[in-house]
Amino acid sequence: MNTTASKTPSYPEATLALAAEPYDFISRQCSRFGTDVFATRLLLRKTLCMTGPDAARLFYDDSKFRRAGAAPGALTKTLLGRGGVQGLDGESHRRRKAMFLSMTDDGHAAAMAACFHARLHHDAGSWSRAGEVTLYGALHEVLCRAACEWVGVPLPEEEVGLRTRQLTSLFDHAGSRGPKHILARWRRWRADRWMERVVQSVRSGELVPPQGAPLRIIAEHVDADGAPMTDHEAAVEALNLVRPVVAVSVYVVFVALALEEHAGCRERVRAGDDAQLECFAQEVRRYYPFFPCLVAETRDRFEWRGHEFPAGRRVLLDVYGTNHDPRVWDDPEAFRPERFADGRERPFGFIPQGGGDPALTHRCPGERIALELMKTAAAFLTREIEYTVPQQDLRVNRRRMPALPASRFHLNVLRLNPVPPRQNSAP
């Protein structure tokens, strides 16, 4: 019996519909069908779409799903790169993931946040002289400089603009088509060549990063097969540290937007301790859209709740809809940082950067770094800088990937306050 035909509702070719509503399409159709799974086609390829915490738990069962070859070619050629940890499975993935976890622990996250804070406070001085500043664009160079400093990648002053544009294009144009996609692919190629030269200089002894520097860890890493990564693979993994840091600019813009949009939020963040900053940053990640879905491919045929999952079938997991699922979240469309005050883990109901155990699954190992950068930004915007927000269009463009306010958030910096004593914010 064909259970897909009898149990799983179907939507006709969904490429245009998903492009029009990347953050809402899957959850909207699941709600319409009254199910957590439906079948469709994307670019004519048969695809299953899922939403919700139970679907997320299933999605992270590595005995049923693989990542190798699952990501669309457009993302591999721009956002992810070829040969990176996102496309590995089994022991190869676990070994490479352990390397990333060693570089993104609490100590490294605190060091990255310190680099960001110092650069942010330095550059904000020029913002105050420039008049109106677009926060999203200004953050790219700040984060690029800070990320390269933390990873150990040399960044000559004359290359700052070039490298910032290359790294930004990898995520800012990841969902684009046409000329922007072609530009992103060209910049990916150039960024790979740049980082390959950096890796080669470390391996030749020309460049000696400090012990424990992420760049050194990557250059010296030995994979599950007992061999070091190729120069290209090592370059991709180095970019898989630097590029996501620059991409946190999206989250920082949403930090600023939340402070502006939600009554009393600024005052509570300004007066709050580290635990309250943590709750605020987590709610920003839950509430606002970042990337809409995750992709995998089934290993073998299986059934789940009456739905057939054929072997080799592409599957999309709805990230935004799961983070707003009323079965997990009370009043999910309300911005309420206090919902995280209980410290409860929700490994499959809260998946802004993936689900499950980051040591075992494909959940992003850099979540702690993203959180520390967001907390640093929230503290900076409420305690260390005074600014006004001019009239602008702050509506979030949810057709764009990643989603952003239409204006990219303009601000007028009035003055910088003295830098308060820094505290170690890592738990």
Automatic annotation (TrEMBL):
Family from the record: Belongs to the cytochrome P450 family.
Requisite cofactors: heme
Name under which the protein is recorded: Fatty-acid peroxygenase
E.C. number: 1.11.2.4
GO molecular function, one term: iron ion binding
PANTHER family per the UniProt record, alphabetical: CYTOCHROME P450 FAMILY 3, FATTY-ACID PEROXYGENASE
Keywords of the record: Heme, Iron, Metal-binding, Oxidoreductase, Peroxidase
Pfam families found in the cross-reference section: p450
Amino-acid positions noted as binding heme in the UniProt annotation, renumbered to this chain: 364
Signal peptide: none
InterPro entries reported in the protein's UniProt record: Cyt_P450, Cyt_P450_E_grp-I, Cyt_P450_sf, Cytochrome_P450_3A
Transmembrane stretches, start-end: none
Gene3D superfamilies membership: Cytochrome P450
Superkingdom to which the source organism belongs: Bacteria
